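Request: Not sure, any thoughts?
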Amino acid sequence: MSSDSVGLLSSPDRSSSPSLIDQIVNDCVTTNQIFFDYTGSISQQPPRSPGKRQLTVEESLITTNDSKRLCNSNFREQTDLKSITPISINSSLSPSSSSNSTDFLSNSTSPPLSADVINWLSTFWAMSNEDRSRATEALIRTCSSNTLQLNHIRNQIEPYFQRDFIRDLPRELALHVLRYLPAGDVGRASRTCRAWYETCNDILLWKRICQTKSIPLKQLPTIFDDTIDNSWKRSYACHKHLEYVWQHGQPLPDPLALRGHEDFVITCLQFDGKRIVSGSDDNSLKIWSIATGQCEQTLIGHNGGVWCSEMTDDLIVSGSTDRTIRVWNIKTGACQHVLYGHTSTVRCLALHDDIVVSGSRDATVRVWNIRTGERLHMLSGHTAAVRCVCYNGKYVVSGAYDHTIRVWLPDQERCVHTLEGHTNRVYSLVFDGKYIVSGSLDCMIRVWDVEQGTCIHQLTGHLSLTSGMQLRGNILVSGNADSTVKIWNIESGKCLHTLAGRNKHASAVTWVQVVLNYVVSSGDDGTVKLWDLETGDFIRDLVRLESAGNGGVVWRIKCTDSALVCAAGSRNSTEDTKVIMLDFDRTTICS
C-alpha cells in the first residue's frame, strides 16, 4: 500500500515512535547538558519564550491521544515543570535584586558559576536595552571564531522561535494553512500529536480535498469503517487503495466472462458501474448484471446489426444497419420507441439529457427526443457518410467521410462552422464545449476552437488512422492503428509521451480510456495494457487473451474508477466472443 494510505490509516494511538521513557531520557539528557553548560547547574533554566503559556502535565495529556505522542512544545513545558526550577530574569531588575539572583546561582548544589561570570551577569542585568543589544552583538562577534560556541548559542536561541502554529493558531486559520498541503502530507501531519490529529481530521478539510480530486463520498460499508471515523477521509483512503490495486494488486482480479453473442462481433459497449450493455452484429443487445454475472435482458427487434448505443439510468438507445434507432426500457427490455427517418445505416449516436443525436451513412445528422420519440431537427450539409457526432446541449459537432467537421446550432438547424483541413476521412471526435479534437485517416489530429471555428494545433506523429481518443482537461490521449498511444497537451500542441517501446501493442490500438491516473488501451493483439498517465511508463498487462497474437482481439473497453469491462473475440474463431469484467474494488464490503 502507498505511504499516503499508511499515513491516512495511522493515528496517534497506532504510532510506532519510541517509547515515552526513551523520549524523556533522551530529551532530558540533552536539555540538562545544555543548561549545565550554561549555568553550571541542572536546576536552572534560561528565560522562557515570551507569550508562551506553561501547561500542566494534565493539560498536555488532554490534548493528546497517547502519551507517546506529546507535542514537542508540550514536552518542553512538562520537562520544565518536572525537572527544572526556573529563573526569572527581568530587564527592570535593580542592582540589589540582581545581586539576590546571583546569590541564588552561587548557592546551587551543583558546581557554581565563577565570580567573574556572576559579576558579568550582574552588570548585564543592570544595562539599558540598547546596551544589552550591543553587548550581545559583541559577544557573538567574540565567539565567531569558535564554531562550538556559536552552535551552543544557536541551540539556546532556536527554541524561543519554534512555535506549534497548528495548535496555537485559531482552528479556522490552522485549517486554512492545511488546505494547501497535499492529502498525503495532511495524513502524515495527523500523526504528530493529538492536537494535530484532531485538526488534520477535520471533516470539511477532507471534503475539500476529495472535491478537488473529484472523489465522491463513499456510502457503502468499507474495510476502513473501524479505523477511520471521518467519512470523507475514509473515501480518500478507499480511492488511494483503488489506485494501488490497479497498479500493484496481485493477483489481478479474477475475470468475469459473460458469453452470449456466440461468434459475432461486439460492436458497441456501455457500462455504468451496475450494468453492462453489449451490442452486436447479431442484431441484438444484451444487458448484463454486475452483481450476478447473468444476462438480465436480451433486446431483440432490429433487423440488422447493432452498430452504436447509448445508455441512461432507465433507457438504452441503439442504432442499426436497418436504418432505425430504437429506445429500450432498461428494466423490462421493452422497446418504447422506434425512430424512423434515416435512409442508411445509423453509424453513431451522442446523448445529452433526453436528446439523442444520430449520424448516418445517408450524410445527415438528426436530433430526437428519446422520451417522446419525436424527431426534432434534421441537419443537412455533409456530402458523405457521417462517422462520428458529439453534443453538449448547445452545439452538435459532426465528422464525416467528406473530410470535414461541421458545427451546428440544432435549434436553428444551422451550420455555424465548417472546419476544413483534413485530407482524408474523419473517423473520431472529442468535444469538451471549448475545443474540438478530430482524428482522420490522413494520420493527423487537429484541435479546433468551437467558437471561432479555427484550427489551433495540428498534432503530428501518428502514422495511421486514429481509432480512439479521450480528453481530460487539456490532456488528450489518442490510440492509433500504428500500434502506439500518445499523450498530448492540446493547449501547447506538444506530444508529452508516446506509449511504445518493447511493451507496446503488437498491432493496431482499438480503444483508449483514462481512469484515475492511468491510461488503459486495448489492441488488435488481444491485450489490454495499463500505462502511467503522468510519466507514460508501461505498468502491466491487465488482460491477455489465450489467443493473443494469434487472432484474438479486444474490440472495445469501458472503465469506471473501480472496474474494467472489455469486449473480446477473434477474427478466425480462435477465441470465444465474450464480455470480460475485472473488479478492482477491494475496499467495499458486500452485504
Q: What stands out?
A: The radius of gyration is 35 Å. The first strand starts at residue 256 and ends at 258. Residues 4 and 561 are 18 Å apart (CA to CA).
